[in-house]
Amino acid sequence: MNRHVLVSVAWPYASGSRHLGHLAGAYLPADIFARYHRLAGDRVLMVSGSDVYGTPITVRADQEGVTPQEIVDRYHAEFVSNWEDLAIQWELFTMTGTPNHHEVTQDIFRTLHENGYIERRTSEQFYDPESRRFLPDRYVEGTCPHCAYEEARGDQCDDCGRTLDPVDLIDARSKLSGATPVSRKTDHFYLRLPEFSDRLEEWLHSRQGWRKHVLNFSLGWIEEGLQDRAITRDIDWGIDIPVEGLGPGKKIYVWFDAVIGYLSASKEWSQIQGRPDAWKDWWENPEAEHYYFIGKDNIPFHTIIWPAMLLGYGGLELPTNVPANQYVTFRGGKASASRGIGLTVGGALAIYEPDSLRYALAANLPETSDTEMTAQEIDRRINDELVATWGNLVNRVLSMTRSNFGGRVPEPGPEHPEDAAVRAAADQLLHRVADRIEKVELRAGLRTGMEMAGQLNAYLNATEPWKTAKTDLARTATVLKTTLDAINHLKVAFAPYLPVTAERLHSMLGLPGNLSDHGWVGLPVPAGTTLGVVRPLYRKVEASRD
Asked: Is this model's pTM higher than 0.90 or not?
C-alpha cells in the first residue's frame, strides 16, 4: 500500500525576499524529499504558505508607511514566482490570511481553551511611552542575556538561537521610537505548556532516526522546565480571539497560528480537490508520516509547542520527524532577511540556472552543522562537479551514440567483467540513494549519485569507446549501451534534486512520456531507441561575486 507522507515546510514571513539560507534550510530539502516520495508512488501532501501575521510585516509596513496587506501582497507574489522558477512543487502554497486558516486556528484555540489548556492571566508587557502602545516581541530589541549579542529580538536571538521574552533583554529598546520601554500590566491568554511535559518527554525519547541536535535541543527544553506561553498580544493585525474576556485591541499571536497552518493548508487543499475529508488520510491516520522541514531556530515550535497543541486538541497525528537544518552562513554571519545578509533567491536566479543552483545548495545542505556559503563555492560546485562530471558525461555518451550509431541506441556485443561491474552498480544505485533520502540524508544521497557518475567517467576512460569505434564497433556498442543504461538510472536518482534537467534528459534518451510516469525505477534504454535532440544539460558559470 502506498504510504501517506505529509511534508510540512516552514511558513516564510511575507516581509522580505527569501535568501539562499532559507532555500537551503527548508524549501529545497522539502522539495527533494517530496519529489522522491512521489516518484516512489507514495501519496504526498506538501504544504506551506506565506505567514501574513508576523510582526516583521507590520514593522516593515511602519517603516515604509504602507499597510501590512500591501507588504503581504508584494512578497507573497514574489515567493510564488521564486518557487515556480526553482521548480519547487507544492500540493498547496497558500497564506495564513485566508478565511479557512482563521476558522481552523480559532477551532484549535477554542478546543484547547475548553479542554483547560489555555487560561487568562495578567502579566507585564513592554510599553513604548513615546509611541503610546504595547510592543509585540519583535518591536523590542536589546542584548541577549545568554550570548551578549547586541541585536537580539524580543522573541529570539539570531546569534545563539535561544527563544526569549522581551523582558529578558538587556538594555531593551523600542524599534518604533528607540525609547526604553516600560512594563505595564495587560491581560492575555496563555498556553499551559507544563501540562504536557511528561507526555512530550516520553514521546521525544521514543523518536528514532532524529538528528542529534534536534533531539538534544528539544529534550533540553523539557529538562529546563517548560513555561506557560502567551498566545495573544496587544496588536491589531492578526486573527480574532474566538472567546470573550480580553476586550478590544488584542489578537492571536503569530507563533500560535503559524504552526496551525500545516493543518489548515491540508484542509484547504482537500476543499480545492472537492474532497473535504481527504486531509484526514494524513492527519487522522496512524500509519501516515509527518515530516517538518525547518531551520534550527524553529525547533522548539515544532518539537515542543506544536506537538503540545496537537496533544491538547486530540485525535491528530504528531510529527514523525523534524529534520531541522542548521544555519547557512555568509562570511561567518547567519543569513538573515531582516539584516540583509546573504544572496536573495531572485538575485541568485539572475545568475544561475535553476537546477545548477539547486545542485550547489543540495551539495552543501547544512544538515548537521552550520555551512559557510560563498559565490565561489557555488561556482565551483557547478563547474567542477555538475558540468564537468555529470553534464559532460551525458553529452559525450549521447554524442558518441549519435555519431557512431546514427542516433539509435545500439545492440550490445559480448559483456566484459568491467561492463558487468558497471551494470551491477547501476542496479543498486536507486536502492542506495533511496535509503539516504528516506533517512533525510539528502546531501549524502546526492553524493551517492555523483560517485556513480564519476565511476562511469572512469569506465569510459578505461574502455576508450572513441578509439574502439575505429577498430571494434561491437565493443563500442557494449560500452555505450552499458553507459546509457547507467545514465538512465542516474537520471532517476538525480530527478528529486535536478527535476528540470532530469526531464530534459528523459527526452534526450528518446523515452516516452514524462519521467514521472515511470516512477522510482531504473530501466535499460531499449536497443533501437532513437535519441532526441542532444544538447548540453548545463552551462558553465563565469566567476560570480559575493
From this structure: yes
